[in-house]
Amino acid sequence: MSAAKLLEDLSTVLPRAVYEELRRSVEGLDEEAALRTIYRALRLYVRSLIDSGEAIGIVTAQSIGEPSTQMILRSFHFAGLREFSMARGLPRMIEIVDARRKPSTPLMFIYLRPPYNKSRDAATEVAKKIQLVTVENLSKLIDVDYISYAITIEIDPEQLKYRDLTMRDVEKALSKMRGKGVSIETEGNYVYVKLEAPDMTKLRKLRDKVLQTKIGGIKGIKKVLVDQDRNTGEWYIIAEGTNLEAVLELEEVDASRTYSNDLHEVAEVLGIEAARTLIAQEIRRVLQDQGLDVDIRHMYMVADAMTWLGKVRPIGRHGVVGSKESPLARAAFEVTVKTLVEAAVKGEVEGFRGVFENIIAGRYVPIGTGIVRLLMQF
Amino acid sequence: MSRKALGHVLGPVEVSILSKEEARALLRRLHIRPWQLPWIRASDPLVKAVGAKPGDILKIVRRSETAGEGVIYRLVVPG
């Protein structure tokens, strides 16, 4: 068999990266050297494959768990950007693995299309566009009169100018609240809100609602920061608060690289595969930040387990572990008595097909050579 | 809207729907039943982008640091 033919056959069998590297190493070699190289590489590759029955679950758990014990328990501030902090270290790790609905520090990394990513000013323009602007942000003075049930708001004209807004925009945004016993009038830089009914609670609620009314920007985005990538020099935006769906719609935004650190949001907007990649990336980031080096395979494993059923599920009794078939395995995990009692009431049957339950019962465990069952023919 | 899923760095490199024969061959090769494959919801942006429906099996080629590219199959599941 010629080296070239062999390589061609291998192109479908070997992983892409391995095949590419082999092909490159063989280039320019004579036939005999090429064949020797290929066979050697093949032997190494086959030897490196994992054995059937290898207990990868426990290997993964230990490989990530042990370095985690070295993690210092504190959350850092973004080096150099003192304006906001990002959840790091153990707390973030727990957030990821527990598949928390909303991260404690929701952030978006917004990459921009050229030419918006070429200069700080251009990026800042986009950032201003994205940042949520509420009536509260624009107001200089807010006066609530509990006697006449009126709210007077003085708008700061400088703020208006800075955000490229006018009183017209303010009026338009607030006009939706007219009616139902509420009247809204604007005069110069003042907004007068009056409540017909003498209701104290309603007045307070109205005040909050008016102040939170969005005038501009994208809902959910609180603070924005413009930063320059150290290596590529491109300007990008970091935003506190996430609204992936809306931000990706903007034409200035590079929708192929922008992401958020909210797993569920990414799963919803970009798909479960993207969420899987994000999980692995985020776990790796947490460990790397702490100076710990763990092979990415283990993170892939965790990410795969969490995304197996098409949505992001926590490890733990509300997710991956909680959905185990075996009552004994579940009971061995967390809420022991409740699990056993409910299993008994439901009439559950233990199938003894997994690892935990067989360990508990002292039987052969379906791991390694234990996954093989012997049949005799006689 | 589902356009976003396909181009993204976090997402896969390519997605395709397996034909009935390809699906059957895959399941036979792995000795498994369809539901034993990883799942992907019908509401997933990837599924919408490629026009698959529950029961289809998707072939997903994802980026991998260890293997360059890795192939995985997902069963489309309602929901």
UniProtKB/TrEMBL annotation, chain A:
Q: What is the enzyme's main class? A: transferase
Could you tell me the gene encoding this protein? Answer: rpoA2
* Keywords, ordered alphabetically: DNA-directed RNA polymerase, Nucleotidyltransferase, Transcription, Transferase
- Its name, as the record gives it, is DNA-directed RNA polymerase subunit A
Specify whether Nucleotidyltransferase is a keyword of the entry.
yes
Q: What is its EC number?
A: 2.7.7.6
UniProtKB/TrEMBL annotation, chain B:
Keyword line: DNA-directed RNA polymerase, Nucleotidyltransferase, Transcription, Transferase
Q: Which domain of life is it from?
A: Archaea
EC number(s) given by UniProt: 2.7.7.6
The protein here is known as DNA-directed RNA polymerase subunit H
The source organism is Thermoproteus sp. AZ2
